[in-house]
Each structure stands twice: as structure tokens, then as C-alpha cells.
Design brief:
nine-stranded antiparallel beta sheet; 9 helices
Length: about 375
């Protein structure tokens, strides 16, 4: 037993060392510092499995981002965040006001319920204390345009495939089409074609419960993310990383369900004999593939800097603040809505939009 444990520790250490070398040699000239840092020093643990879904805990040795943070759900339910329709209600945007004293991360793919129709967040967005931001969204409830102004917390997140399409530049029509196509696998449509209602159907909640029972909680103190693979194809399809352990801890349930919606809810029968092995080395290879591409800064509706990553069929999106990645999602999921485009790193020097410079609506100060 002792010998096996020692061997396992050596194997994990070797994987971490290779990741560090890859980051140092490949990423140096092609990636913005935040991406270079978050993808270096990774330790990839053995996967946990539920049927064909494999989830690898990711541990990171870097220094986490500073400040105090809340998630969208916690801030909404605690009354510290107000999400509502614009003064002149429009499908593509909602107004988000942070009245609390902590920064709030709105993660791309998170669903907000209510308003005139249920929406999904289009971009990772940081809303700092006392800041009001106009946030871009997509509608995921095509059959309703009625009701109140305010949105409530929803426990759901869009399937990873829809998130991937959004990250690749999908439009509203494509999102509606994907929701329509997903309906049969999610138990059928409903009166308003609400994606949230589909995901919240009792049969689906029961399946999500089985997923969480098998996978458990990813709770080691330095666990900051997960990689997800599909045993049907033997392919790693996604990597989710956070610059703060507490954000990952609070969002891991949603993240797992986003991938499970594609990998579990859509699979009517699974034969373990058909499983293709996926090892930690494949996750490392996925990280190296991402590092062989490029990354750059993008517009963000809130504070900080948006991040984009492109490497062949891999595309990544995220957001950073104060020189630290807050969240980065890197995916390679078929089918692709639009081809990933190369990203050009801007010239060195200050970039407009750090801190409070970028909000579309001017932040309110004390």
C-alpha cells in the first residue's frame, strides 16, 4: 500500500512538472500574463466518474486573486445584487446593480429567471461594489414576453454545448435553435420553451442528483477547477479554472451540471464496456494544446479585462481583474457554431477598461 501511494505521488508531481515546463516554454510569447499564470503549476488528480462522464479535479499552486467575492446566486438571494430589465426592456441586455460590499462574478451560461423572459448570461462579468452594469444576455424562453422587471436567482446553467456556441459567437437565433434541439433529450418542451424549466424538470433533477452522488464534492483546499471528459469518445472536452478557490467551491455544482446536461441527460443507455480510457495525461495534453494557441484581451461589460483563447478547435473565454484570472473556461466541443478566430495580443502598456473604466453605465460611488 505504501509503495502504491508513493508511486501515485511521484506520478502527480511529474504531471505538475510537465505542466510547468509547457507553460514556461510555450506560453511565454503567445499568451497574456493571466492565462499564462492560471495554466501553469497545475496538478491533475485522478478522475471521478458517473457513467460516461469523467471529472478530473484540478489543483493549482498559484496565489489567488484578492478581495471579497460573491456568486450571482448568493448575491441575488441575499439582496445585494439587483438584476432587472432595462428602463426600455430589450432582449439582449439587462441591468445589474451591486449594492453590496463584495465583488460579484456573473459566469457565462448562468441562467437568470423572471423579468419578461428567462435569460442566460453571455459573458463572464465582474460587478464591483456600488457598480451598475449593462450585461449582455440571450433569451432562453422564446415563448414569453410578459411579466415583471426583476430577475431571481436560478439554480441552473446552460448546457456546456450552448455555452460553447455562445463563446464561439453564436447569435440569438442559434441559441433558440439549440434550446429547441435539446428539448427532446431534456424531457420535452414546455408552454414557453423555457430552458430553465426543462433543466428543472423532476426527472432531470433526479439524474443530476445521481451525478453529484457519484462525483461528490471537490473540496481539497487548493482545488480551483475541473476538467471534463467523455468516455464515449475518450476526449477531454472542457477545462474550468478559477483564480479563487471559494468561487470554484460555490460554483462547482452548476459547472458539473452544465456538462452533465450534455453527457448524461442526453444518453439513454450507457454500456461501461464501451468506455474509452481517459488518463490525467490526456488532460495535460489538452492544456498543452491550449497553450500552443494564443490569448488576448477582449471587451467586458463590467470591471477588469475579458479574456479570449484560441488554439485550433479549442476556444476559451474568461475574465480577469487586478492581473489575476477570476474565471477561465476552455472547451473543445462539437459541433462548433462558428470557427474560432485567432486572437492578436494587443501592444504592451495600459489597456482601457481596467477597474471602473469600462462599465456601460457609470458606477455609483458612495
Amino acid at each position: 500500500m505504501a509503495r502504491r501511494c508513493t508511486t501515485a505521488r511521484v506520478a502527480v508531481a511529474a504531471i505538475t512538472l510537465v505542466a510547468l515546463v509547457a507553460a514556461a516554454t510555450v506560453a511565454q510569447a503567445k499568451h497574456v500574463p493571466e492565462v499564462q499564470e492560471i495554466l501553469a503549476g497545475l496538478t491533475i488528480a485522478a478522475p471521478r466518474t458517473h457513467k460516461n462522464m469523467l471529472v478530473f479535479p484540478i489543483r493549482w499552486s498559484g496565489k489567488q486573486a484578492s478581495g471579497e467575492w460573491e456568486t450571482l446566486d448568493l448575491a441575488l438571494s441575499g439582496g445585494h445584487l439587483k438584476v432587472g430589465e432595462m428602463a426600455q426592456a430589450s432582449v439582449p441586455n439587462v441591468e445589474v446593480k451591486n449594492t453590496g460590499d463584495k465583488s460579484v462574478l456573473l459566469m457565462s451560461g448562468e441562467i437568470i429567471r423572471g423579468g419578461k423572459q428567462t435569460r442566460v448570461i453571455r459573458k463572464d462579468t465582474i460587478v464591483e461594489p456600488k457598480q451598475t452594469v449593462q450585461v449582455p444576455v440571450f433569451c432562453v424562453e422564446r415563448g414569453r414576453w410578459a411579466g415583471g422587471k426583476d430577475f431571481k436567482a436560478a439554480a441552473t446553467i446552460a448546457p456546456a454545448s450552448i455555452q460553447n456556441s455562445i463563446n464561439r459567437g453564436a447569435g440569438q437565433g442559434q441559441v433558440w435553435e439549440q434550446v429547441r434541439e435539446a428539448a427532446p433529450a431534456l424531457g420535452g418542451s414546455n408552454a414557453t420553451e423555457s430552458l430553465d424549466s426543462m433543466l428543472e424538470a423532476p426527472a432531470n433533477r433526479a439524474k443530476f442528483g445521481e451525478v453529484h452522488k457519484d462525483l461528490g464534492k471537490f473540496s481539497p483546499p487548493d482545488t480551483v477547477g475541473v476538467a471534463v471528459a467523455d468516455a464515449r469518445t475518450g476526449k477531454v472536452i472542457g477545462l474550468e479554472m478559477f483564480g479563487r478557490r471559494d468561487l470554484f467551491d460555490r460554483l462547482q455544482t452548476k459547472l458539473v451540471e452544465g456538462y452533465a446536461a450534455d453527457l448524461v441527460l442526453t444518453v439513454s443507455h450507457w454500456d461501461p464496456k464501451q468506455a474509452k480510457a481517459v488518463a490525467t495525461a490526456e488532460v495535460l495534453a489538452f492544456v498543452v494544446r491550449a497553450l500552443k494557441g494564443t490569448s488576448g484581451y477582449e471587451d467586458t461589460p463590467g470591471s477588469g479585462r475579458g479574456i479570449g483563447v484560441a488554439s485550433g478547435s479549442i476556444v476559451g473565454k474568461g475574465v480577469a481583474l487586478g492581473g489575476k484570472t477570476i474565471h477561465l473556461s476552455v472547451q473543445d466541443i462539437e459541433p462548433h457554431a462558428t470557427p474560432a478566430r485567432p486572437i492578436v495580443i494587443p501592444p504592451s502598456g495600459p489597456i482601457p477598461g481596467e477597474g471602473h473604466d469600462r462599465p456601460i453605465i457609470r458606477p455609483q460611488r458612495r
